[in-house]
User: Fold this.
Amino acid sequence: MNNTIPRKPSSIWSVITASSMGTLIEWYDFYIFGSLAVVLSTKFFPADNPTAAFLSTLATFAAGFVVRPFGALFFGRLGDIIGRKYTFMVTLLLMGGATFIIGCVPSFETIGYAAPFIVLFMRLLQGLALGGEYGGAATYVAEHAPKGQKGFWTSWIQTTATVGLFISLLVILFTRTMLTPEQFDLWGWRIPFWVSILMVYVSYLIRKNMSESPAFAKAKSEGKTSTNPLKESFGNRYNLKFVLLALFGAAMGQGVIWYTGQFYAMSFLERVMSVNPEQVITILVLALLGGTPFFIFFGWLSDKIGRKAVMMSGMLIAILSYRAIYEKMYQTTNLENKTEMVERRTEDQALKQLGDIQDSVFTTIRYFEDGTVVTETRTWHLEKGVSKIVSGKTQIAQAKSIEVNSADKWILTFLVWIQVLFVTMVYGPIAAFLVELFPVRIRYTSMSLPYHIGNGIFGGLLPAISTYFVSNAQNEGKADFYLEGLWYPIIIGAICFIIGVIYITKKMTTRYTD
Amino acid sequence: MNAIKRFLGIVWIILALGMGYFLVTFGWPKFVSGTQDGLVFGIIILFVLLPLIVLGLMVFGYYALIGEYTQDE
Assistant:
C-alpha cells in the first residue's frame, strides 16, 4: 500500500482542523510548564534559595527551547523523506507522553535528585517534539492551500501557539479556582499535565485519518523527494543563505516580539509588579482572546500587500513602543502614586501547618483609596518551634501580592493586548513567508530550523535574560530598573528589522508560491 | 541598493565580532561566579547564544559581502 497517495480528498477546512488541533495541543503541553514555572520550582528543585530555584526552572524551560532546533532537524529530515503526516503524528504522541509523565513525577522531597532529572529529560523530549511539529503542520497546511491564499490559511496554524497558551492559562485558572491554594500547591498543579493525555488521544484519532499533502505526495510519486535534506538545506550555499536570512531577517525578531508580548508581559506583571497571579492570568486571557483574531487578519492582509510589509511594520512599531508601554504598566500599580487608607490596615499572625512543615506567617493587608489592596506576608520557617537556620541564615520568605482595582485591570489588559497585536503582525504571516522561501523537497527541514532558533533560542531565552537584567539593575539601584529587561528584545528586534527591510525582496518570497 | 547590501556585510561581520566580545566579557564572569544562577546564564550565553550569533551573523555578513543577496534582485 502506498501511504503517500491521498486516500480521500480532504477539504481545506478539515485539513486546518486536524492540523491546528494537534499543534494547539502541543503548544498547550509546552506552555503549562512555563505557566506553572513558579510552582514547579518549589517541587522539583532545592528550594533553599527561591531565586535559584526559579532560575533552575527557567533553565529547564530554556533547555526545552534550546533543544527545539534539534527537533526541527531530526523531524524535519524525516518529514522531507517519509512525509509530513506520519512525522507529525509521532511528534504529537511524543509530546503527550512527556507531558503526562511530568504530571506524575514525585517531588524532590520524595525522590530527591531523580525528580529534577526526570523532569528535565521529559522537558527535553517536549522540546524535540515541538521542534518537529510546527514545521510539519505549517508545511502541510500551506501545501493544501490555494495559490495566493497561503497567508490566510496558514494563519490558522499561527493562532495555535496563542490559543494553546490561552487554554493552558484557562485550565490552570479553572484548577486554581476549584481547589484551595494548599490543595493546588500539594497536588492540583498536576491536573493540567494530566488533562493533556486526553486531548492528545482525541487529536490522534482525528489526525490518523488525514491524507498526505498533495505537493509532497506528487513529489514522492515522481521520485523528486530529497534523500539527504540536511545536506541540501545547510550544505548548499544557495539554500543556506535563505536559511540565514529567514533567521536573522525575520524569525529572530519575531521570536523576541512573541515572547515579550505573551510571556515577558506575564512574568513582568507577576514578578516585577507583584500583581496577584490570578489577576495576571485573567489579564492575559482577556488580551489573548481579543488579539487572536488578528492572526487571521494579518495573515489575510499579507496575501494582499505582502508578508514583508506586515511583519516589518509590526516589528518596528513594537520596538519603538515597548518602553512606553512597560513604563505605563509599571506606574499603573506603583504604590507611590496611590494613597493608603492607613486606618484600614490589618496585621495578623498565624501558625501554618503544611504536611510536616510548620511556618509562622505574618500578614499585613493595606487598602488604598483607589481600591487597590496589597497583601504582604513574611513567613518564618520553623523547626521544633524556633526559626529554621540554614547556612547561618534565618529562613524567612517575603511575598507581596497586589490586587489591582477594576480600572487598572482594564488598563493593564489593554496594554498587554497591544503587545499581542504586535505579535499577530509579525507572527501571523511568518509560516507562509517561510514556506514560500523553500522548495517542497527540503521545505520541512529548511523552514523548521530558522523558525525554532528564532523562537526557541532568541525568543525562549528572553524571560530568563530579561528577568536577569531587571534583577541586576535593581541590585545596582537604577531608578528605572524595571525597563532594563526590554533592551534584549529591542536590540534583537532592531537588528532583525534592518536586515529584513534591506535584504528580503519580493522575488525571494514568491519563488515557491504554488 | 546592491552596494549598500554588500557594504552592510562588513557591518554584520563587525557586529558579530563585537557581540562575541560582549558576550564573552558578560558571560565568562557569570560562568565562573560559583553561583547557580551565574552558572546557568554563563552556559546559556557562552555555549548557546555566542556561537549562534557570532558564527551565524558572520556567515550571513560574508554572504552579503560577496553579493549572494544581490543575485536575487
